[in-house]
Amino acid sequence: MGNTVISNIRWVGRYIKNHMFQGATILIYHRVAELPSDWQLMSVTPQHFGEHLDVLRKKFYPMSLQQLHRAAQKGKIPKGAVAVTFDDGYADNLYNAKPLLEKYDVPASFYVTCGCLDQEQEFWWDDLDRMLLQPQSLPQTLTLTVEGIEHSWKVDVPSNPSPSTEIVPPKFSKIQEEGKLGRKELYRSLHSLLRPLPEEKRRPLLDEIAKWSGSNRKGRVTHASLTTNELEQLGKGGLVEIGAHTVTHPVLSSLSLSEQRDEILQSKEGLEEKLNRPILSFAYPYGERSDYSVQTPELVKQLGFSYACSNYSGIVRRGVDPFQLPRVSTRDWNGEEFSRRISTWFPV
To answer: Boundaries of each NodB homology domain copy (predicted)?
Structure first.
């Protein structure tokens, strides 16, 4: 009797391990590039990205997001399944990421903000970085009117700091006690104000900040978004899926459903026109649960997408909402650290 009970327990344990907890991980990247500074931790160097892909190819089961979606719907996710995704649409996705994906034969989905194609300006968060965090002198006071409310900041920055100079005092120091902000604190404050704004309201504020800081709005080559021609090149070959990421990268929950519909549908139709193929996949800008409304996933489904990615951590299992697929953020880890971390993300 005792041996039978033990045998049954072991069988149940194996079943749970092999079936009930089987799941997959979707990785989210943004950039593959060597940058002098990356305060938002959006970039992975080409060397480290290659090491990540080597780990995936040797230890896990890389598959396309479309394959993973179908496997999850059937409840037949392969052990160690991983999908790679990229958000936003930086030009280095073509020049640095795609060659490495081809080298290691790892498929990936790229979610492109179609309104930023062919633009000389940077993504707005990079624009803000360039104007505030680079080594040029800044005036001591900035005043902006945002949504009818006047905001004023006193700025304490070194005059023409060198690129190696630490441009923000550690934590909350005497400077902040005196009501002044370092550059990174100023960036954080402005970022939080600009993030929920629609593009037509954010753009003139960025123009004001550019004038105040003595910067122009022309973007850096190192932070360029894709051109239409580069998008076409990126989409060639069987390893790459192109997905939609709205037109202007808004916080969707700050928009009405009608405005959300326009952003989502126009991004789908715009990419389909440029690539002459169906666009079946979508990723929510920013992607936390608060960044889109309760109705948004159903709207995405109604507009003809097959699945959509969020940006909060979780495991893809059978029964997961295909229009709220969780993803895990990556950082510029070397291969050993990446291997250690990804191993902790799997349920088995």
So the answer is: 80-348
